[in-house]
Structure formats: structure tokens, C-alpha cells
């Protein structure tokens, strides 16, 4: 036979998970061309030019595998790894592929490198240095889920749907696979496709299949044999991972102890667009009821044939996933005939949309997510909801804002049937981008088919990096789980503990809260700001909008295209929120207790116009007072004279004057910082200290120039004199008070896009309580009776390594806990009697709810299902093991037992008894905060002493909060009976059903939490007990829970004052030189 050289081969695929992308165009592919007899490389990156096709997934190696279509055999082959090309020639690599097919393993002079996570064809890993044939209908995976388990949600690869030959020569082709190669014309070139010959098709009713149809039927029978072997095994999931499917109809290799089971499995060879007739075969071997459906193709059609290997194996996984238990002893349970198995679709795709037109909002409560293996009728008294239900109807949504830790964007878009044109903004964690100083790293548009989907990577501040150098990075995490769905008449805010991935919404218990807020008749700009007077007759004044806008603005810093979100919030009324937002934003935050802020505001003449404050600094302060510029010291003496005569406010700060510098070429946004002569009412006599930093001036000036806002500066006397006299290199702190401007009422008419960007920066910069201080701001308004406390619990999926006694005491104190002996004291100091380290050591205040390692191992899917969800420091366990703090996490309701939990829920409960009647009150938190100092913050402090006054009165205590993570949650407050309440009518704390059993069982003497070490040991036992587990597979897993590094908290308890950065010094020098030049020219 004449050997036919095919010029091109067209391969049509169906992507699974992350799509295959062209290395040249960067576009996702469902159809691609390759040349025959030439290897093509698939990998993670095309930046080096070595990958022809790209899959942008962390589990894919840089150069993962190669594919080649052999023109001799007319077959497609795949090789795990890459055979390195010698001097750019493909011929040797092609020859090497051919040698591999006949079993020759010697590479000769060639070198190859295998991928880390392997290549799987129909869930069977391609052996290293071997070439594997890939046929139509085969599933090719480049990453097979966690620990080698090909979970439906963890797959990355494609299914081959069609292979078409293109070529000029349509001469005789050697036939070796039992299929004709039909020809049809398309323009100048002819195409050939695999299709059964007409005489190969016979009536399936007769049970006879002609010899040339054996290729198809043989493969189906092989799969039936494969399934039969799995059903007989003790460990079906391991067999799914490792059994070898023979294409010649032989039984797959035995990998498990044989054992008889009976079940029902539907096996279908799917031919789209093909009429079918169904027959039932008794497959024998004790497998009664096993049904095989053979589709009869229409002979007039070119077959788009999918043999359904992927669907077949997925069906088996779904059939048994709900009742298969893998523990350290590898126990397995399978259903028998007549047992009902509920297997909802994991991906949400093609589900019937029967969502309720309007869900009942939870109010001061939360829902749980709907688990895929639990029937709706068995959810007990806890209400459940799915992600598509929360977005329904998606057609009415105008735009979406999301914040998450990990994300599967394509899953979300397809699961919720999101229109391709819908604007979707997703703030997500990416260590490299979040730590980058390059503003271009803040965003990405990853999906060409969804051009309005924008990824945002919120910045981590340099002040929390190791060595305060962002190139060193540090402990930081973008960890909130927030959805904002904007519609014309309302906006829905969703706060959950689930990340934007299928597994956490379908297989893992999470909490979900949401509320719809109505549209206002007119926008309310002032709702973006926290007002000075926060108290009302009903406790804390609602500040939901200000908190939400502030948190969103912090995520959208340096993203001008998304700044419009801040203005959108002003269009909706958030006053009747069911709970209080509690956010954490990374950084080192100054402690501004509400009672101090109020006293400071009440003494200022601008109290009615006051909107908030911003912590800034003065740059270039020492320039004017250097010996070169002030040889006689006259300027310094003049400054000291003005400062001594200026009256301090209640916070011990001096008021300064800010003035714009519009004629400075170095920065048209420059703002001068001046100390006025207190005896000159005109304020034209002053000493200039320096300038606002460029990063602050760039948004202050646009908002100030148009009259939207006014700004007043405040500094500490000792810091100014210390820096001016060159006795200190510390950065001089300046607090900006933001006041209403003359044009603020006309903002909607005057505002331009660059004003919107500046407004977003202003809202992000406003000082607000964060972390545990925000919790204290919400809960500290109430007097909680310590003697009536009945329970204080915190359940989290991660316990930080810095969860020390000091952190526990800080958290409890922020939650309103007081030392009982001081509780009734009339001492005016609000911190008097607060819970301290001493009380915490003597009587631990909080019960920490965390699963034992035995509970994890005995779960439905054993240790594998929790391995990347739970994080508990071994060091913390050693500190806590004798403290009676830990309690087991038993899921509630009962039907969730065996499923992992990813919740972060805290509750402090009080019970008041009056006669025969008792009532409960307290508060409940739900959100993204784990029990860690990284999430809630760690208090740090130092003392500052006036250099000219060594008396104790000159010492100013400075307390700050060091926060590492972005977090968001909601607190529902049920105040004590004697206090006024703003609670929703009819809502009670007892209505909240916690997702874990209370009282939670205390750890026994032999119990141990599921620490990282315990999980690794349990996993090692599992691998050892499962003889067929792919032990050589090293899976690069994407962490689903943040892991706080086990760094000692000691050493972080104090902070060092910042010094001016080099870029700030250079900026100030440029401004000073141009200001002096301008002054000289004017005087001359």
C-alpha cells in the first residue's frame, strides 16, 4: 500500500476545566490543526516559545506532554513529558515515538523529562517513557484531581470528539482499525473522517455484529468488563485510578481483592444526532440488571462519535461517591439492588431551572449551602440554598462584584448561566500579583469569550512584608467570600464562607447570608462615610453602606476601571441591614476608639461637616531646616515659636494649614503643609513643613479643586520638632480630616471619571475600625452580663499558628468580655476590667470547635476530602492540648455528618432567667474570618517620649493593630433585655441553628485535632492501606484554605516607626527645588 502523507489533521475537542489555549494567538480552542509526524508540546506557559498549546493551570508542568499524529498508522499518540528536540529537527523525535510504540525504551542520544502530575487517558495514567494511543471519545487529563483521585471538579484536560484528515492526495489508505475513511470535499481540499462502513451496520436486535464493527463494540465490551471488575473490588476508587483498560477486550488487570457486589450501572455509547435502538444484555457474572445501550448510527451521517469513556467513569464515580468511605483502613461500602442513590449533577450544567422566584431572606440568620448528595427533604430544620438560586434570575443582573480566595471562573459562569456580555469583577488572591508594586499587575482579563470578566488582585501593603520590603513578601491573604449583585431596583449582598469553586458549593458545608437592599429615589453620597455621632436610640447607627464601600474600595485601589462601584452603592438604601459588617484590611492600623474619635470631633469647629479622617504623613520636612538652608537656625526657632503657641486639640495634635501648589511642574497635584502663625488671623504668615506624599496628593487635589471636599491636617508637636531639628528620621504622621466641600451637593452633576477614581481612593483611605477593633466597635456598645454567659464558641477551618493566649484574650476582650471581679465597677475608663492575658490563662474564655483526626478519617471520603480545607498548627496543638479549649466539630444536621465543614462561625450566648421564664440573647458571627491573628489582627504598641521633656507626662502610648488578611463577615446582635434593641422584629438568637452540634463534645484524652502532621500521617496510612494507590504521583494541589506560617508571635508585639522612603525623599526634593525657584523668580 502507498503510504499517504497527511498535510494536516483537524482535531475537535471538548475542554474539561481550564481550556486548551493556542500558544500563538492566546485564544481558547475547541478545534485545532496539527501537522502529521510532528510533535506538539502542551504546557503551562508559552512565554519561552516552547509550548504550542497552553493550559493555564498551576498543576500543569511548564512543558507537560507531547502529541503526535502518525501518518503511517493514522493514529493520534500522546507522550507524558517532552522529548527534547535535537538541533530543531522533528524527524528524530518522530522516530523515537515509533520506537516507543514497539517497546524500545532506550532513548539513545535524546533526553526527555516527564511531567510532575502525569497524563491520564480514560483515567489510566500513561506510564513514564511510554506512548499512548488516543482515539475518538477518549478522555485525556493532565491533572486528575487531588491525590490521584479523578474527582469531577478537579479534572483538567479534554475529550477527543473528532479527528479529520486534510490533504491533497486522496489515494488509497491502509486500513487497520476496522473503520472506513470516508471522503467528502471542502473547497480545494478533501477531508477524511472515521465512520463505520454501511455493511458494518447490522440490526442490533439480532445480537450479531459484523467483523468490521468489532472495533467499536469491542471497546464497549471492554468498558463493561472494566466496570464489572470495579464492582467486584474492595476498593473501587483505587481501581478507577489504576486499572488498565485493554482495547482488545481482555479483562483489566486485577488491582483489588475480589468480592461480589450487585449494582445497576448504565453504560451508553453516545452518538450525537444518531437514531438508536436499545437492547438489554444479561452480562452474567452476578451483575443482574446491568444494561448496555448500543446506538445504531445513521449510515448517511459522518459520525461525531463519543464513546463516552469520560461519562461512563464519571457515572460510576457519581453512583458510588455518596456511599463510599475511605478511611485509614480503606473501608468500602457499596449499595445493593433496590437501594436508592441520589446523584445530582456536580457541575450545575443542564440542571432543570426550577428555582424559586424569590428566596426568603435569612434576616438575622444564615443558610447552609445545598450539598449535592443530600436530598432536599432531608435537610432538617436548617435552610439550604445553591449558588444558582442566589443569582436567579441572572438575566436581571446588571453587574456582579465578587471577592474570593480561590476561584474557578469558568465553572461559575457556566453553573449560573451567566451571559457573556455581563460585567463581572472578581477580586482574587494571587501572591505574585498582590505583592507586586506594578499597577498593571492589579488586573487581568483572562477569558476572551467573556470580555467583560475582569480579575482584580488587591494589593498587600509593604508595611506588613518581611523587612517592610514587598519583594520579600510576607504573611498575607485575600480571603473574603463576597458577592454583590446589582439590579435596577435592588442590590443583593451575599456573605459566605465558600470560595468560588464547585467543590466548596457542592461537597463541603458552608454558611450563606444575603440581603436585598432597595434603590433610593436619589443617590446619597454621605452614606459612604462613617459619621462622628455614631450612637442612636437603638445602639450603633447603621453604617453598612460605609463599611461595604470602604472594603470594596480597598480591593479596587489602583484599578480605575472598577472605581465606579463606589458610586453605585450610593444609589441603594442600606439602613435596614439585618447585621453589622465586620471587615479586615491588611496593614498596620492606628487605634482609634470610638469614644476618642467622638471627643475629638466634638471639639472641632467643623463637627457638622466632618466626614472622616485619613492617616498620611509629611514628606520633605527636614529640607528647610538643614544647616545648609538654615545656617543661623532662624527658621527652626520660628517654627518652634509657632508650634509652642498653637493650641492642641483633645487628642494632643496641632492643626495645620494645607494649600495647593498648582504651578509646580514636578507634580501639578502638589499640596503644601504649613504651620501658621497663631497670632495672624489671615494665616498668610507661616512656616512650610513640607508636602503631602504623592500617593495622597493625587486624589486630594482633584476632589479639593472642584469643591467636593475640604481637608485639614493635624500633627503631633514632638514628632514635628524632632524631625525638623534632625534629631529623628521618623516619618511625621499627619492626620487629614475630611470635610464637606461647597460643591458636594452638586457632585452628581459635576463629577468626572477622574473624580470617581479619586473618590474611590479617598474611601479606601478613610480610617475605620478593622478586625477585632471593628468587632469591639459593634459589640462594645452593649453591657453584656458576664454572670449570665452560657456559651462562647468559635468554629473555624483554620487555627492560626499565632493563636496565643494573648490573641485569645484580645479577641474575647473585643467581644465584650470583662473580668468578673471588675464588671460592676463604675470606673470611667472603658478599658477598665477588660479581659486580659492573666484571666485567659487562668480560665480560657472560648471553646474552639475543630474536628479530630479520627472524625476526618471516618468521613465519607476520608482524609482526602479535608486535606486542603483544614489548617491547624502542630505548635498550637502542643500549647493547647492541656487547656480544655478544643471541642470536636460534629456537623449539624445529621445528614451532613461525614461531609467536611469550611465554616467560620462564632456565638456568645447569654441566658436570663426571670421567675419561670428564661430568655436568650447574645451575638453570632458568620463569614470568612478564621481564628487567627492574621485574620483578626494582633495588637502592637510602643511609647513615644518628647525629646525635650523627659517627664512621664510627655510619654504618649501608641497602640496599633497589625492585620495580614482581607476578610469579611456579618455579626447579628441580640442585645440584653434591659437595652434598647435594633433587632429585626420577631428574630431570636435561638432561631439560629449552628452548623455543628452544641454543646460540642470536649476532646478526650486520646483525641487529637486534624493538624497538618496528623493529616500527613493519616494520608500515608491511606496510601499504604490502598495497594493500588498511585504512590508515584506527586500532585501539585491548589490550597483551598489559607495557611498562616508558624512564625512566633513574639517579636511582632512592637512596631518601629517608619522612616521616609527614598522615592518620597526624591519627590519632596524635586518639589522644594521648584518651589524655591518659583519664589526666587517672583522676588526678583
From TrEMBL:
One of its GO terms (biological process) is DNA repair. The keyword Plastid does not apply. Residues 40-126 form the FHA domain. The record marks 932 as: Interaction with DNA. Residues 1049-1059 have a biased composition (Basic and acidic residues). Residues 1026-1084 are annotated as: Disordered. Residues 1033-1048 have a biased composition (Acidic residues). Keywords: Hydrolase, Metal-binding. Substrate binds at residues 481, 904. It comes from the Eukaryota. One of its GO terms (molecular function) is phosphoric diester hydrolase activity. SMART domains: FHA, HIRAN. One of its GO terms (cellular component) is nucleus. The active site is at 479 (nucleophile), 902 (proton donor/acceptor). This is Forkhead-associated (FHA) domain.
Amino acid at each position: 500500500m502507498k503510504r499517504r502523507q497527511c498535510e494536516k489533521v483537524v482535531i475537535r475537542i471538548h475542554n474539561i476545566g481550564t481550556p486548551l489555549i493556542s500558544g500563538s494567538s492566546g485564544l481558547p480552542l475547541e478545534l485545532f490543526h496539527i501537522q502529521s509526524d510532528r510533535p506538539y508540546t502542551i504546557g503551562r506557559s508559552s512565554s519561552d516559545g516552547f509550548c504550542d498549546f497552553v493550559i493555564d493551570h498551576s498543576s500543569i508542568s511548564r512543558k507537560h506532554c507531547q502529541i503526535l499524529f502518525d501518518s503511517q498508522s493514522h493514529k493520534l499518540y500522546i507522550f507524558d513529558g517532552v522529548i527534547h528536540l535535537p538541533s530543531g529537527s522533528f524527524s528524530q523525535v518522530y522516530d523515537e515515538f515509533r520506537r516507543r510504540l514497539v517497546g524500545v525504551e532506550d532513548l539513545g542520544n535524546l533526553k526527555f523529562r516527564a511531567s510532575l502530575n502525569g497524563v491520564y487517558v480514560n483515567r489510566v495514567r500513561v506510564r513514564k517513557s511510554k506512548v499512548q494511543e488516543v482515539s475518538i471519545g477518549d478522555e485525556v487529563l493532565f491533572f486528575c484531581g487531588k491525590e490521584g483521585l479523578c474527582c469531577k471538579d478537579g479534572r483538567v484536560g479534554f475529550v477527543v470528539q473528532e479527528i479529520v484528515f486534510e490533504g491533497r492526495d486522496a489515494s488509497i489508505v491502509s486500513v487497520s482499525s476496522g473503520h472506513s475513511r470516508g471522503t467528502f470535499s471542502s473547497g480545494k481540499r478533501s477531508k477524511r473522517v472515521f465512520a463505520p462502513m454501511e455493511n458494518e451496520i447490522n440490526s442490533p436486535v439480532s445480537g450479531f455484529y459484523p467483523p468490521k464493527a468489532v472495533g467499536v463494540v469491542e471497546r464497549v465490551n471492554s468498558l463493561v468488563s472494566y466496570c464489572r471488575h470495579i464492582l467486584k473490588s474492595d476498593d473501587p476508587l483505587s481501581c478507577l485510578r489504576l486499572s488498565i483498560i485493554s482495547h482488545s477486550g481482555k479483562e483489566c488487570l486485577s488491582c483489588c481483592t475480589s468480592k461480589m457486589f450487585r449494582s445497576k450501572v448504565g453504560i451508553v455509547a453516545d452518538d450525537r444526532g444518531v437514531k438508536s435502538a436499545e437492547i438489554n444484555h444479561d452480562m452474567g457474572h452476578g451483575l443482574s440488571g446491568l444494561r448496555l445501550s448500543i446506538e445504531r448510527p445513521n449510515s448517511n451521517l459522518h459520525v461525531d462519535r463519543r464513546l463516552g469513556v469520560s461519562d461512563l467513569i464519571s457515572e460510576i464515580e457519581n453512583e458510588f461517591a455518596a456511599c463510599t468511605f475511605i478511611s485509614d483502613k480503606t473501608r468500602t461500602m457499596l449499595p445493593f439492588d433496590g437501594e436508592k442513590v441520589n446523584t445530582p449533577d456536580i457541575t450545575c450544567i443542564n440542571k432543570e431551572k426550577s428555582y424559586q422566584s424569590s428566596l426568603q431572606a435569612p434576616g438575622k440568620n444564615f443558610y447552609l449551602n445545598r450539598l449535592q448528595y443530600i436530598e432536599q427533604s432531608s435537610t432538617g430544620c436548617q435552610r439550604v440554598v445553591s449558588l444558582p438560586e442566589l443569582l436567579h434570575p441572572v438575566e436581571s443582573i446588571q453587574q456582579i462584584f465578587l471577592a474570593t480566595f480561590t476561584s474557578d471562573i469558568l465553572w461559575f459562569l457556566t453553573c449560573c448561566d451567566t451571559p457573556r456580555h455581563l460585567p463581572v469583577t472578581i477580586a482574587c488572591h494571587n501572591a505574585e500579583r498582590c505583592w507586586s508594586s506594578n499597577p498593571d499587575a492589579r488586573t487581568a482579563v483572562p477569558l476572551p469569550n467573556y470580555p467583560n470578566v475582569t480579575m482584580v488582585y488587591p494589593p498587600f501593603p509593604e508595611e506588613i512584608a518581611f523587612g517592610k520590603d514587598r519583594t520579600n513578601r510576607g504573611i498575607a491573604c485575600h480571603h473574603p467570600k463576597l458577592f454583590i449583585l446589582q439590579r435596577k431596583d435592588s442590590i443583593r449582598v451575599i456573605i459566605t464562607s465558600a470560595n468560588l469553586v464547585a467543590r466548596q458549593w457542592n461537597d463541603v458545608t458552608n454558611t450563606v447570608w444575603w440581603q436585598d437592599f432597595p434603590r433610593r429615589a436619589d443617590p446619597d453620597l454621605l452614606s459612604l462615610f462613617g459619621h462622628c455621632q455614631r450612637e442612636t436610640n437603638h445602639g450603633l447607627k447603621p453604617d453598612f453602606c460605609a463599611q461595604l464601600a470602604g472594603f470594596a474600595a480597598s480591593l479596587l485601589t489602583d484599578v480605575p476601571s472598577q472605581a465606579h462601584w463606589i458610586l453605585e452603592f450610593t444609589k441603594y438604601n442600606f439602613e435596614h441591614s439585618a447585621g453589622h459588617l465586620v471587615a479586615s484590611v491588611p496593614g498596620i492600623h492606628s487605634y482609634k476608639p470610638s469614644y476618642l474619635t467622638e471627643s475629638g470631633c466634638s471639639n472641632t469647629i467643623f463637627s457638622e461637616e466632618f466626614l472622616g479622617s485619613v492617616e498620611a504623613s509629611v514628606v520633605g520636612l527636614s529640607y528647610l531646616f538643614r544647616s545648609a538652608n538654615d545656617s543661623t537656625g532662624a527658621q527652626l526657632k520660628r517654627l518652634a515659636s509657632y508650634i509652642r503657641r498653637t493650641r492642641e486639640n483633645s487628642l494632643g495634635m496641632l492643626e495645620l494649614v494645607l494649600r495647593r501648589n498648582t504651578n509646580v511642574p514636578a507634580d501639578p497635584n502638589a499640596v503644601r503643609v504649613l504651620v501658621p502663625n497663631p497670632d495672624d488671623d489671615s494665616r498668610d504668615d507661616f512656616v512650610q513643613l513640607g508636602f503631602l506624599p504623592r500617593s495622597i496628593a493625587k486624589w486630594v487635589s482633584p476632589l479639593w479643586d472642584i469643591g467636593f471636599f475640604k481637608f485639614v491636617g493635624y500633627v503631633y508637636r514632638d514628632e514635628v520638632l524632632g524631625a525638623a531639628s534632625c534629631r529623628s528620621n521618623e516619618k511625621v504622621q499627619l492626620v487629614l480630616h475630611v470635610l464637606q466641600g461647597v460643591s458636594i451637593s452638586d457632585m452628581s452633576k459635576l463629577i468626572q471619571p477622574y473624580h470617581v477614581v479619586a473618590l474611590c481612593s479617598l474611601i479606601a483611605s478613610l480610617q475605620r475600625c478593622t478586625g477585632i477593633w471593628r468587632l469591639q466597635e459593634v459589640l462594645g456598645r452593649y453591657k453584656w452580663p458576664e454572670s449570665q454567659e452560657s456559651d462562647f464558641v468559635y468554629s473555624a477551618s483554620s487555627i492560626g499558628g499565632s493563636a496565643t493566649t494573648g490573641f485569645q484574650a484580645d479577641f474575647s476582650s473585643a467581644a465584650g468580655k470583662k473580668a468578673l471581679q471588675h464588671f460592676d465597677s463604675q470606673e470611667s475608663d472603658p478599658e477598665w476590667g477588660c479581659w486580659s492575658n492573666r484571666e485567659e490563662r487562668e480560665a480560657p474564655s472560648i471553646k474552639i470547635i475543630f474536628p479530630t483526626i479520627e472524625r476526618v478519617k471516618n468521613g465519607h471520603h476520608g482524609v482526602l476530602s479535608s486535606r486542603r480545607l483544614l489548617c491547624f498548627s502542630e505548635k498550637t496543638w502542643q500549647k493547647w492540648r492541656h487547656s480544655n479549649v478544643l471541642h470536636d466539630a460534629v456537623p449539624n444536621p445529621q445528614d451532613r455528618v461525614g461531609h467536611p465543614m469550611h465554616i467560620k462561625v462564632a456565638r456568645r450566648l447569654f441566658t436570663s432567667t426571670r421567675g419561670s421564664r428564661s430568655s436568650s440573647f447574645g451575638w453570632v458571627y458568620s463569614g470568612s474570618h478564621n481564628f487567627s491573628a492574621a485574620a483578626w489582627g494582633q495588637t502592637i504598641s510602643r511609647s513615644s517620649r518628647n525629646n525635650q521633656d523627659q517627664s512621664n507626662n510627655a510619654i504618649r502610648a501608641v497602640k496599633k493593630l497589625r492585620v495580614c488578611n482581607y476578610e469579611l463577615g456579618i455579626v447579628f446582635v441580640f442585645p440584653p433585655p434591659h437595652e434598647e434593641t435594633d433587632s429585626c422584629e420577631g428574630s431570636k438568637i435561638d432561631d439560629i441553628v449552628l452548623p455543628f452540634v452544641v454543646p460540642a463534645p470536649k476532646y478526650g484524652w486520646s483525641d487529637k485535632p486534624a493538624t497538618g502532621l496528623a493529616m500527613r500521617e493519616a494520608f500515608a496510612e491511606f496510601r499504604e492501606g490502598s495497594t493500588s494507590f498511585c504512590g508515584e504521583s506527586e500532585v501539585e494541589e491548589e490550597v483551598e484554605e489559607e495557611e498562616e506560617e508558624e512564625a512566633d508571635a513574639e517579636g511582632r508585639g512592637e512596631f518601629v516607626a517608619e522612616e521616609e522612603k527614598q522615592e518620597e525623599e526624591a519627590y519632596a526634593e524635586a518639589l522644594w527645588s521648584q518651589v524655591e525657584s518659583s519664589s526666587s523668580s517672583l522676588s526678583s
